[in-house]
Amino acid sequence: MSKVLDSFLHENLEDLKSKGLFNVIDPLESANGPIIKINGKELINLSSNNYLGLATDERLKEVAKEAIHTYGVGAGAVRTINGTLDLHVKLEEKLAEFKHTEAAIAYQSGFNCNMAAISAVMDKNDAILSDELNHASIIDGCRLSKAKIIRVNHSDMDDLRAKAKDAKESGLYNKIMVITDGVFSMDGDVANLPEIVKIAEEFDLITYVDDAHGSGVLGKGAGTVKHFGLSDKIDFQIGTLSKAIGVVGGYVAGKKELIEWLKVRSRPFLFSTALPPADVAAATKAIDILMESTELHDKLWDNANYFKQQLKERGFDIGHSETPITPVIIGDELKTQEFSKKLIDEGVYAKSIVFPTVPQGTGRVRNMPSAAHTKEMLDQAVAIYVKVAKDMGIIK
Ligand code: PMP
Asked: pTM here?
């Protein structure tokens, strides 16, 4: 290894480790369901984005097996050469129906969807108004586009209006986009989409909502945009197939011409192999299930409300989440990591989240109760929370 790389890696890794910022990865020896197995031990799992339990749903497994039987395990090419299977077309039609839009396009992940979509439309002559807590993939997508990035204070509508007005009146930009998460993944708060749409209409902004954590969760499952009744007002509805949908992939739903443009101009669609058949079939089935019934959605909310109430009553700081995302805020990074480690020792897998994923000094253990948990599992998890937190002096 080159000497300069060797010292760069060594010094930086040691620095992270000494500050408690080095993330240790524990491989699962089981499916990522409500109970997981790590190092031979069964744990109650509160760290997965598998909100509805669909990642292990038998109906999804069945269609995935059938798809493998018929189409094999790989799509074999990029979408624009001959990697587009009829399964991809069906998925995209289903996504458009699910999101109440004219059309949709699927990508290999939510992350690469943001990289793809923003840079296909925005360029160096444009500006993007981006909430300061937007997901890393949005930030990277904005950077890739080379547009001027204007950071907006988190969910601060006065700041957004003032910056939109300045950008518009400066006459410097051809296009201006406002971009936000639908649900913010670290705190569980919901974007003020009605106000964002008003500001967008006033200044002719392109609207872009990444609803990775809202789909399957808000709007009776259809997402944050539907929750606010704004399906015809948002230009880009982004989603992931990896969280509530339980599989993998990302998508944009919107007007037909927008999707046509993305199909000819977004680079991961043109230059990276299409999603595998089993995943496409499973994701399509998941959306069918969500559109047919709100049973899983209702169970998710029932469990989430119950779990949050239990933690709150015991004196934990659970922030201001409006969704099932339940942070338990500890603050100090090392203490947060110690807390999470002790929870794991006692039988609850709730992973610590620290800087740079969240601002310094706001370390938290983030909990994701799901439709697949039973009340008994949640009660057991709360009892372990209380024991560990009392031992560490976090609660009285
Ligand atoms: N956008 C947001 C808001 C997310 O929370 C995530 C997942 N962490 C992504 C995009 C990336 O999605 P995926 O895991 O499908 O790449």
From this structure: 0.95
